[in-house]
């Protein structure tokens, strides 16, 4: 490993807390050291308390912070003296430990300190670093792990057999070090868990970590012979993928998003005949079980049966290990081995699925290396279970807040670059959905910068482009639940007598035929969706057409009729189809200031009067239509299909 320490940059950090942030971020930059919130760091600092007395505090990583992005507020102060007193207690539950640690904070409103705070406190050095370094943990997760650590590090490091994190671990190390001169060791190896280093200056502690991990990496490089992994290509089956997502979501009781890894490494591992047996032995570090569960699921052509078998196996695992009054977690898998396709990761959000995907990638590499060294041997099942059902994790279940209505749902919106479509993308995303945004306008690229919004430049009248966009949506997110069929145009006014044939064809093609193509392509995926819904953006011109708008009105009437037929055909499969009839939505591209002024003058009105020319005297905006689309796609309209819903402020001609 290469040190990222930079003297010039380090000199800009003028105190120990700033240096602590600096080296914490250096550690956090390397995913082979820590992953997604893993690891923790601390520094001991003297400061004056409320009474002006000098007191020593442990500034330790707070809950919810990631080492890669940590800032000074992420290192929370705890009174060092009290932490050192806690370790001398004979017994202390972790719930009690958390309460006592918070009581020792000068500002209890800050995030909770790391569960390793007591351990950091008893290490008699200013700076302490803790990682879950892949190379070290891989070696300890083998049959000869303890012997390898002794061979590599001699007496430079303290070897600590695995015990649960928190008070038990701190107490164990406190007892082990009663007769040890801390100055004679540079760090600790927690078998099957990770590495601690420490020093009185930030750089030494940081670089000791790198030296320890480098030694393990060098050993692996020497022992593991490079092998060429055969390049494999996944046989993509998007409809089957959506079935898998549906089955996992039902088992979990909430919608999931899927991240698919079809890399050669993932395919190679998934296609091994013993892949499930190997991965099922346990995670790379016990902390990972909270994200990944102790084992994955193996998929075949019957995902419903696979997921059902997994849930039964998980419940058996729970019953086999449970003691006391524990609440069984949801029994759905967190990741899956899918031969010929790759490895899947399931999460309630794109971020969560991505975290599981990253952990999985590090895990399968570690398994591969460990197998070459005599066999993958993580912790016994009982130890893994104890961490998965740690009382601190059980306590979190009681604090679960309300999730956004569409969290984990997957929505596709056409005509998304502006107006109603753009507002729909924002509205559904704000309520937790993953969204695919389609528009022929190249300006769609870069409009939405979130990882859970896909942008497609797509001509919806082109079958191939439309199919590619839909398939890519399913590939990235795992399925499709809600379709907002919105793309359209408003042709210039022409009487039937003077109607240009191109105007007629263009309107029918975009305002009607493209929607029919979209339905054809999306229905197979919506069939496997979760409470699936189709929202068709039609027009007030359907119930109340205007003279000179035949091309538009006829196409929108046909679109509404298409939706009604779809409601009849798809209702038996639980797919709802409803039509919205907006009118006079002026914050769209067709309503330029010039057009708006001209139309207002035509009716002898001011612009404001024209905008509110309806029974309720209100202006209708794209956001209003998007809000209605969310409502109709949501639980409030769960038993409504085939409806035509106006959003026009009240139109006397329609009424």
Features:
7-stranded mixed sheet, 3 domains, L-fuculose-1-phosphate Aldolase, Rossmann fold, 14% strand, alpha/beta, 24 helices, 7-stranded parallel sheet, 655 residues
Characterise the protein shown here.
The protein is 42% helix and 14% strand. The chain is an alpha/beta fold and 655 residues long. The chain has three domains: 7-223, 3-Layer(aba) Sandwich (L-fuculose-1-phosphate Aldolase), CATH 3.40.225; 238-397, 3-Layer(aba) Sandwich (L-fuculose-1-phosphate Aldolase), CATH 3.40.225; 410-587 and 620-647, Rossmann fold. The strands form three sheets. Strands 3-2-1-4-7-6-5 form a seven-stranded mixed sheet, sandwiched between helices. A seven-stranded parallel sheet has the order 14-13-12-15-16-17-18, sandwiched between helices. A four-stranded mixed sheet has the order 8-11-10-9. It is elongated and about 100 Å long. It starts with 6 loop residues before the first helix and ends in an 8-residue tail after the last strand.
Q: Which residues sit in consecutive blocks of at least 5 with pLDDT less than 50?
A: none
CATH class of the largest domain: Alpha Beta
Instruction: Note the beta-strand portion.
Output: 5-15%
Roughly how many Å apart are the termini?
73 Å
Rg over CA atoms, rounded to whole Å, is 30 Å
Strand order of the largest sheet: 3-2-1-4-7-6-5
CATH architecture descriptor of the largest domain? 3-Layer(aba) Sandwich
Strand count, sense and closure of the main sheet? Answer: 7 strands, mixed
Shape: elongated
Percent range of helical residues: 40-55%
Structural class designation = alpha/beta
Number of helices: 24
How many structural domains are formed by the residues? 3
Say what the CATH topology of the largest domain is. Answer: L-fuculose-1-phosphate Aldolase
Give the CATH H-level superfamily of the largest domain.
Answer: Class II aldolase/adducin N-terminal domain
């Amino acid at each position: 490993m290469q040190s990222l320490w930079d003297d010039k940059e380090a000199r800009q950090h003028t105190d120990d807390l700033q240096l602590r942030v600096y080296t914490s971020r250096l550690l956090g930059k390397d995913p082979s050291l820590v992953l997604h919130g893993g690891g923790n760091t601390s520094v001991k600092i003297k400061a004056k308390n409320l009474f002006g007395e000098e007191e020593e505090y442990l500034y330790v990583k707070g809950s919810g912070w990631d080492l890669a992005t940590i800032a000074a507020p992420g290192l929370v102060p705890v009174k060092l003296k009290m932490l050192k007193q806690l370790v001398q207690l004979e017994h202390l539950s972790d719930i009690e430990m958390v309460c006592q640690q918070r009581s020792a904070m000068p500002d209890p409103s800050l995030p909770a300190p790391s569960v390793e705070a007591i351990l950091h406190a008893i290490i008699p050095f200013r700076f302490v670093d803790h990682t879950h370094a892949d190379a070290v943990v891989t070696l300890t997760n083998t049959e000869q792990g303890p012997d390898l650590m002794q061979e590599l590090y001699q007496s430079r490091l303290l070897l600590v057999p695995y015990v649960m994190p928190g008070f038990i671990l701190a107490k164990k190390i406190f007892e082990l070090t009663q007769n040890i001169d801390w100055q004679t060791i540079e760090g600790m190896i927690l078998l099957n868990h990770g590495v601690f280093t420490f020093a009185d200056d930030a750089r030494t502690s940081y670089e000791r970590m790198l030296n320890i991990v480098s030694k393990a990496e060098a050993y692996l490089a020497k022992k593991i012979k490079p092998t060429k992994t055969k390049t494999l290509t996944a046989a993509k089956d998007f409809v089957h993928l959506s079935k898998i997502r549906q089955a996992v979501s039902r088992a979990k009781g909430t919608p999931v998003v899927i991240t698919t890894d079809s890399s050669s490494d993932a395919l190679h591992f998934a296609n091994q005949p013993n892949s499930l047996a190997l991965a099922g032995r346990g995670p790379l570090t016990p902390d990972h079980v909270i994200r990944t569960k102790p084992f994955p699921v193996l998929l075949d052509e019957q995902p419903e049966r696979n997921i059902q078998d997994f849930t039964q196996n998980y419940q058996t695992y729970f019953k086999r290990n449970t003691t006391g009054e524990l609440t069984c977690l949801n029994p759905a898998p967190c990741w899956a081995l899918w031969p010929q396709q790759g490895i899947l990761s399931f999460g309630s959000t794109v971020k969560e699925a991505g975290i599981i995907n990253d952990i999985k990638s590090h895990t399968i590499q570690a398994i591969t290396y460990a197998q070459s060294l005599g066999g993958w041997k993580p912790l016994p099942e009982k130890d893994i279970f104890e961490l998965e059902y740690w009382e601190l994790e059980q306590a979190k279940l009681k604090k679960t807040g309300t999730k956004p209505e569409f969290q984990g749902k997957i929505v596709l919106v056409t005509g998304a670059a502006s107006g109603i479509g753009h507002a729909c993308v924002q509205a559904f995303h704000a309520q937790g959905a993953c969204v695919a945004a389609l528009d022929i306008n190249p300006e769609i690229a870069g409009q939405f910068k979130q990882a859970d919004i896909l942008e497609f430049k797509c001509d919806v009248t082109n079958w191939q482009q439309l199919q590619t966009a839909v398939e890519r949506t399913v590939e990235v997110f795992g399925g499709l639940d809600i379709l907002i069929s919105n793309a359209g145009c408003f042709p210039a006014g022409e009487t039937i007598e003077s109607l240009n044939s191109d105007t007629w064809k263009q309107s029918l093609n975009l305002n009607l035929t493209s929607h029919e193509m979209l339905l054809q392509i999306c229905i197979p995926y919506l069939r496997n969706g979760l409470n699936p819904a189709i929202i068709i953006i039609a027009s007030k011109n359907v119930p109340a057409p205007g003279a000179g708008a035949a091309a538009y009105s006829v196409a929108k009437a046909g679109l509404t009729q298409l939706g009604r037929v779809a409601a009849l055909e798809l209702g038996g499969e639980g797919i709802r189809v409803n039509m919205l009839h907006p009118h006079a939505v002026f914050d769209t591209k067709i309503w330029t200031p010039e057009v708006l002024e001209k139309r207002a003058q035509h009716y002898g009105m001011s612009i404001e009067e024209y905008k509110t020319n309806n029974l309720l005297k209100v202006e209708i905006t794209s956001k209003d239509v998007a809000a209605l689309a969310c409502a109709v796609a949501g639980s409030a309209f769960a038993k409504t299909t085939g409806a035509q819903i106006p959003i026009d402020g009240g139109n006397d001609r329609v009424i």
